[in-house]
Amino acid sequence: MTTTDLRIGLAGTGRIGAAHAETLTTLPGVGSVVVADADAGRARSTAAKLGVEFAPDVETLLAAGLSGLVIATATDSHPELITRAVDLGIPVFCEKPVAADIGGTLAVLDHLENSDVPVQIGFQRRFDAGYRAARAAITSGELGWLHTLRATTLDPAPPPAEYIARSGGLFRDCGVHDFDIIRWVTGREVVEVYATGGNRGDEFFGTAGDVDTAAVFLTLDDGALATVSLSRYNGAGYDVRLEALGSRGNAIVGLDDRAPLRSVEPGCLPSASPAYPNFMERFHLAYTAELTAFLEVAAGTIPSPCGPADALEAFYIAEACELSRRESRPVAQHEVRHRTY
How much is the average pLDDT of 159-180? Predict the structure, then answer.
């Protein structure tokens, strides 16, 4: 198979699913796209808008002779869709997470253990040019040995209350991207976490047992230290950055003229460019590159660049953060790995 004749199915035509469907129609190598959604009317509307095929349900979609399946549905449907597609021999791209919790993620990994059908999980920052440049600078030794990493994911406004109630919490839903990218750019593992959080915004965060702002301290296995700042209330705009500070130099991701930062030093002029309003705009090119890679995965020309096992590692860190926040103490990674799920 080549990437010139791929028939790609897409399950889930919400915001990110519709965006993925539109991107797929522009990529060389895609012969046809078929979309489905639990809301058949929404899928039909998306299909009509993009000029792609419509499937009335998932069963019809999976039987449509697919070369690959993109999953952008609600989290609780991910395990079943992944395993059903793999059992049919269909390569899968699935938005994170693999499942809503570690137990569900481990069950999917167990199911896939003896399968050679590739599964790619959507951590789009791995395909962002800035993060890739930072990784190259670190792995080449250009920065020397790392002593500090500082990561931020700051949303300009919170999602709806009903989303928060089902999100899994700030660490699993939002911080997990930072945890994954810290592992990926450094090639190191996290051995201990300390996390704290607070609520100064809407009451629905507390009602859901969540926090709207958090600070995380990570210790890596080579002794490097990392901090992660998370918030749902960054009124200046969408702010995602990573600073990698080493003994010989540094690399900063996300410090461009659209970063929502304002210097109050005399003589420093504000940027004339508007801040990024959301993750879709900030990572548009990364999402495109991610799906382009999936076409290669589906065609069998490259292995999955981010498999379910990678997603599990990031989820373990998020789980340790939640435990740390609730118990107000440092948590070693082996504690969450050895728990019963």
Answer: 95
